[in-house]
Amino acid sequence: MDSIRFASKKAGGSSKNLGGKSPGRRYGFKKQDGNFVNAGNILATQRLMRWHPGAHVGMGTNNTLYALEDGVVRFTKEVYVPAPRSEEATKVITKLPRGAVLYKTFINVLPIKQEGKFNLVGMF
After folding, report:
1. What's the predicted TM-score (pTM) here?
2. Are 43 and 107 in contact (CB under 8 A)?
3. What SS3 state is found at 106?
């Protein structure tokens, strides 16, 4: 007769809910309206197009907005009218009530005055 050995401990089940422990991405605007920024400073990080680049503002591949010149940050809202027969017009405009107006928020940088600042350029 063969002897049978039984498990001395209960089998441990598989663990669940492993994800969700990573920190948030900290999206949002990094500079407020009226703040002074240097060229290259990040103005806002975003996943979708919440804010649009205005004057003297560039946009990175991940929709990060950054200053192209030294100056003061200004937020503006402008009326947005999509091109007729565009995909955006058919998706967005048809769902709005009659007479509604669309606005887009732009982040602009007003450069500091360049008076008295110049570089000598060699004549070729």
Report:
1. 0.70
2. yes
3. strand
